[in-house]
Design goal:
The complex is a heterodimer of chains A (111) and B (113). Chain A is mainly beta. Chain A contains no helices and eleven strands. Helix content of chain B is 0%, strand content 54%. The chains are: A mainly beta (111), B mainly beta (113). At the A-B interface, strand 5, strand 9 and strand 10 of A face strand 4, strand 5 and strand 10 of B.
Chain lengths: 111, 113
């Protein structure tokens, strides 16, 4: 059972480039989330999808877009990357918003 | 919105001693309080959680206590071992109808052999 799988694990972008972070879960969970983790800041919610077909903004949505492609997959897109978006990004899923299962993270550096 | 404060930010204990991490929350409507452990290079993993209808919950060496009146909850780890060294996060959620976990900023626990 793979759980929550994120790709890629590492990425370096130049300012202004775009990219999509992929997330897939195989636990048949309804809700999925994208968080960013910065030193000393904990985890901050970027966007979430309560169920297939719905997405909502979290605490820090500016500069990001998301797509809930189907029940399994939830992608995060950076249209024009900025150095402030250098961070570790975590995808998570929950069956009914109880325990959140996290992926291994994507370490993104924007130069 | 919800605000979760976590203390201390770093904690060093001798192996075998106890460790306590404390969190406070601001929104009295919050009713679900999980604790996550994050090892280096990995995603956070749930270690214990508590709901607002319970004052204390225990799982082997780990316990969580909740004081709804004071709006604070704590993680207690007894008989610490080197493998307990990690970053610990507390979080709070309003439960049904809300899908957002608000996290504290984390505590880096070091257990010295």
């Amino acid at each position: 059972n793979a759980g929550v799988t994120q790709t890629p694990k590492f990425q370096v972008l130049k300012t202004g480039q775009s990219m999509t972070l992929q997330c897939a879960q195989d636990m048949n969970h309804n809700s999925m989330y994208w968080y960013r983790q910065d030193p000393g800041m904990g985890l901050r919610l970027i966007y979430y999808s309560a169920s297939e077909g719905t997405t909502d903004k979290g605490e820090v949505p500016n500069g990001y877009n998301v797509s809930r492609l189907n029940k399994r997959e939830f992608s995060l897109r950076l249209e024009s990357a900025a150095p402030s978006q250098t961070s570790v990004y975590f995808c998570a899923s929950t069956p009914i918003h109880t325990e959140a299962f996290f992926g291994q993270g994507t370490r993104l550096t924007v130069v | 919105g919800e605000n979760v404060e976590q203390h201390p930010s770093t904690l060093s204990v001798q192996e075998g001693d106890s460790a306590v991490i404390k969190c406070t929350y601001s929104d009295s409507a919050s009713n679900y309080f999980p604790w996550y452990k994050q090892e280096l290079g990995k995603g956070p993993q749930l270690i214990i959680d508590i709901r607002s209808n319970v004052g204390e919950k225990k799982d082997q060496r780990i316990a969580v206590t909740l004081n709804k009146t004071a709006k604070h909850f704590s993680l207690h780890i007894t008989e610490t071992q080197p493998e307990d060294s990690a970053v610990y996060f507390c979080a709070a959620s309003k439960g049904a109808g809300s899908y957002q976990l608000t996290f504290g900023k984390g505590t880096k626990l070091s257990v010295i052999p």
